[in-house]
Amino acid sequence: MQDHLPIVIELVFVMLAVALFAWWQLHEIKVDRRKIEDQRAAMTREAQRRGAAVAHPPPDGVLNDAGAAAAADPPATSAPDPLAANKAAATNPPGHVPHAHRVD
User: Fold this and answer.
1) How many domains does the chain divide into?
2) CA distance 31 to 39
3) How far apart, in whole angstroms, are the C-alpha atoms of residue 1 and residue 3?
4) How many Å apart are CA 34 and CA 103, to the nearest integer?
5) What is the C-alpha to C-alpha distance for residues 85 and 91, in angstroms, rounded to an integer?
6) How many CB atoms lie within 10 A of CB 56?
7) pLDDT tens-place string over residues 41-90
8) Rounded to whole angstroms, what are the CA distances from 55 to 18, 26, 94?
9) Can you give the pLDDT at residue 3?
């Protein structure tokens, strides 16, 4: 057991260091979120004080109705896609196995 004691102690220290680092990262995320909420609240209070409309951007990764519609329907162009034939040829038909060769 004495031969393994330094390894066990080192593993415990490493695990404690990982746990401490994870706690620190989660704490920083919480602090950043509070800071953002405080900034938004201050902006809202300032806008309400001036009598202006309050508009907040959506959180990261969330699209509003206009953004979802714009992402779903790309703007139409008057010129045809020059790569349309290549894209159609590159798609595999159902049941196609890539890199398979027939031996007749």
Assistant:
1) 1
2) 12
3) 5
4) 66
5) 10
6) 9
7) 998 888 888 876 656 665 555 555 555 544 445 555 556 666 665 665 56
8) 40, 29, 48
9) 87
